[in-house]
Amino acid sequence: MMTIIGIRAREGNYPLRSLDATVTKHMASAPRRVARIEVDIRLSGDGLDASARAELEEAARTCPVALSLREGLVQEMRFHYT
């Protein structure tokens, strides 16, 4: 997700200064597996307007890796701007 966000920011000439993320997994049993992940993405950049933010968030949501994860896996993405 972070790579795709960075690529989209560069292509759109968006002023993305920093980017980091935290992923928290929640396990299920019978069978034991990852049932849900929470992804908190923190972006910083002066001038990231609503349009730029929407485009970067869409890039994260349509990331090829995220779309390749198990179909039943719940992915909760939260975006934090500073």
Please give a handful of descriptors for the protein shown.
single chain; 82 residues; alpha+beta; GMP Synthetase, Chain A, domain 3; 3-stranded mixed beta sheet; 3 helices; elongated
The gist of it:
This protein has 82 residues and is an alpha+beta fold. Helices cover 33% and strands 38% of the residues.
What does this structure look like?
- The mean pLDDT is 94.
- This protein is α+β, with helices and mostly antiparallel strands and 82 residues long.
- It is elongated, with a radius of gyration of 14 Å.
- Helices cover 33% and strands 38% of the residues.
- The chain is built from three helices and three strands, in the order αββααβ.
Topology:
Layout: H1 2-11, E1 18-28, E2 33-44, H2 50-61, H3 64-68, E3 74-81
Parallel strand pairs: 2-3
Antiparallel strand pairs: 1-2
Helix pairs in contact: 1-2
Query: Major β-sheet, in short?
Result: 3 strands, mixed
SSE series: HEEHHE
- The CATH architecture comes to 2-Layer Sandwich
What's the number of extended β-strand segments?
A: 3
What structural class do the secondary elements suggest? alpha+beta
How many distinct helices?
A: 3
What is the domain total for the residues? 1
Measured between the Cα atoms of the first and last residue, the distance is 19 Å
Strand content: 35-45%
CATH topology: GMP Synthetase, Chain A, domain 3
CATH superfamily: K homology (KH) domain
What shape does the CA trace take?
A: elongated
What's the CATH first level? Alpha Beta
Give, in spatial order, the strands making up the sheet with the most strands: 1-2-3
Helix content: 25-40%
